[in-house]
């Protein structure tokens, strides 16, 4: 009875669900893959792909990975324990050199500065640009302009900023702007390097100033001749020098002029027809060490001092002759690293902006609007909602730039002049300098390469953990 019922039930099952020992098992389908336990399933993966075929497809990638990544790493580690010639075992001497050599220690310090400041500033600027351009009509055009430096190679960017940071204001844009702002609020020198000759009635007074050899008196016009001013440096509106007239009411008069006749023929201490007045030259009357009167020469060089100058010495202060302000030494030992970091930020702020703008476009707008409805101002919305929700994107940008700056080489090599290259040195540049050249030491160079690898690994592990955590959400 039971057997018959079972047989009847078995007959009632579909053909692909026949019972076997009281348990229904699926029958192999016609033309389909065999079950995993069957002989036909051997050599196949879960998806039915033969493992041998899969290995053949992966093999070229594995060969390239081994040849271009694994082998160089292994050989660099091995070479770092050999001496300069590569024939003797040096132990950890090369690694000791990394922390005893002043040049390499400077490179390590500069790399730390790069890792801390360059990614942070670039990410912060990218966040600001992305947020501020979100609502403006011309935001797309602005983003395009900011992103354009990414299309420029590091070599070209280095050449551009080498010119931008040029010390001469007529070539360097940075110093041209800086000098323009400085000269707006500070009086510049009129006649740098001007000086009297021994036959002139002036003598040095110390500190770059000049005084008359005798005191001056009213009714006796004073002559203040100078030389050493290039014709191109003369004021454009200077006029031919004119002999002064006697002053009225006890005033002291005189003429300050360039005692030099172009083409020759002039006489010293004599105002010739083709000699120009030193317009703007400051003249001080000094008695007992105190300035009692001041005046400035007119376009023809003449000046007038009040009666209080009678019996005093006339002094031409050093401010008339100091070198003109030429701006900041951007590529000097002090500012070369911040200057190069500025060029890096100029290039990569656009990269950060584009990624952050993409993350910003995916934020739920209802949360932002709800916060505004509840009374939050734009700063509170940005600080408490926008930034926390953009944290994953900001982490991606920050980690990417940190890995990028650890291997920065081109900008430092091109922008930093030879006199400041040691001060701007970084590990990637030192790796090049130690591994190539007349005094190359491949042992030290390999040790630097291993150090760079060890510095990159923690950042990479952090990035991998973050990606896995995002994947589990």
CATH topology term of one domain: MetI-like fold
Strand content: 5-15%
Q: In order across it, which strands form the biggest sheet?
A: 3-4-10-7-8
Helix segment tally = 14
Task: Please describe the topology of this protein.
Blueprint: H1 2-12, E1 19-20, E2 23-24, H2 51-79, H3 93-100, H4 102-132, H5 139-147, H6 154-164, H7 173-185, E3 202-206, E4 209-212, E5 222-226, E6 252-258, E7 282-287, E8 290-296, E9 302-305, E10 313-316, H8 336-361, H9 365-373, H10 378-389, H11 391-406, H12 410-415, H13 427-435, H14 442-472
What is the compact description of this entry?
With 473 residues, this protein is α+β, with helices and mostly antiparallel strands.
Report what the structure shows.
With 473 residues, the chain is an alpha+beta fold. Among the domains are: 97-169 and 330-437, MetI-like (MetI-like fold, Orthogonal Bundle); 202-320, no CATH class. It has 14 helices and ten strands. The protein has helices at residues 2-12, 51-79, 93-100, 102-132, 139-147, 154-164, 173-185, 336-361, 365-373, 378-389, 391-406, 410-415, 427-435, 442-472, and strands at 19-20, 23-24, 202-206, 209-212, 222-226, 252-258, 282-287, 290-296, 302-305, 313-316. The protein has a five-stranded antiparallel sheet, with no helix packed on it. Strand 3 and strand 4 form a beta hairpin. Helix 3 (93-100) packs across helix 14 (442-472), helix 9 packs antiparallel against helix 10 and helix 13 packs antiparallel against helix 14. Residues 1-25 have low confidence and may be disordered.
């Amino acid at each position: 009875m039971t057997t018959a019922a079972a047989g009847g039930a078995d007959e009632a099952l579909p053909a692909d669900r026949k019972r076997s020992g009281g348990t229904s098992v699926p029958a192999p389908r016609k033309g389909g893959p065999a079950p995993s336990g069957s002989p036909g399933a051997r050599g196949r993966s879960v998806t039915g792909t033969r493992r041998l075929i899969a290995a053949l497809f992966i093999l070229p990638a594995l060969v390239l990975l081994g040849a271009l990544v694994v082998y160089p790493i292994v050989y660099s580690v091995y070479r770092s324990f050999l001496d300069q010639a590569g024939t003797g075992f040096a132990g950890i001497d090369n690694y000791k050199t990394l922390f005893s050599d002043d040049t390499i220690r400077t490179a390590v310090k500069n790399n730390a500065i790069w890792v801390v400041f360059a990614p942070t500033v670039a990410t912060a600027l990218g966040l600001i640009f992305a947020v501020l351009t979100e609502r403006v009509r011309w935001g797309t055009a602005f983003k395009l302009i900011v992103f354009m430096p990414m299309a420029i190679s590091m070599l070209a960017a280095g050449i551009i900023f080498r010119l931008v940071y040029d010390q001469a204001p007529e070539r360097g844009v940075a110093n041209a702007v800086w000098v323009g702002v400085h000269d707006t609020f500070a009086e510049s020198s009129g006649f740098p390097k001007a000086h009297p000759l021994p036959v002139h009635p002036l003598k040095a007074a110390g500190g770059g100033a000049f005084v008359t050899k005798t005191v001056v008196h009213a009714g006796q016009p004073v002559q203040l001749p100078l030389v050493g001013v290039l014709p191109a440096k003369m004021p454009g509106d200077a006029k031919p020098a004119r002999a002064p007239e006697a002053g009225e009411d006890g005033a002291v008069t005189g003429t300050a002029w360039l005692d030099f006749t172009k083409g020759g023929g002039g006489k010293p201490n004599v105002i010739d027809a083709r000699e120009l007045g030193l317009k703007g030259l400051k003249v001080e009357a000094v008695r007992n060490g105190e300035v009692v009167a001041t005046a400035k020469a007119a376009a023809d060089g003449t000046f007038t001092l009040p009666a209080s100058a009678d019996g005093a010495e006339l002094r031409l202060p050093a401010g008339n002759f100091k070198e003109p302000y030429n701006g900041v030494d951007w590529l000097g030992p002090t500012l070369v690293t911040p200057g190069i970091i500025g060029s890096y930020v100029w290039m990569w702020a656009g990269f950060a902006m584009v990624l952050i703008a993409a993350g910003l476009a995916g934020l739920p707008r209802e949360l932002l609007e709800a916060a505004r409805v509840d009374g939050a101002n734009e700063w509170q919305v940005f600080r408490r909602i926008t930034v926390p929700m953009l944290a994953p994107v900001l982490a991606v940008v920050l980690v990417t730039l940190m890995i990028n700056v650890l291997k920065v080489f081109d900008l430092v090599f091109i922008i930093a002049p030879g006199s400041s290259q040691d001060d701007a040195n970084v590990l990637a540049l030192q790796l090049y300098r130690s591994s190539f050249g007349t005094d190359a030491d491949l042992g030290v160079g390999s040790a630097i390469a291993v150090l760079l690898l060890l510095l990159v690994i923690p950042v990479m592990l952090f990035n991998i953990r973050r990606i896995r955590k995002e994947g589990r959400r």
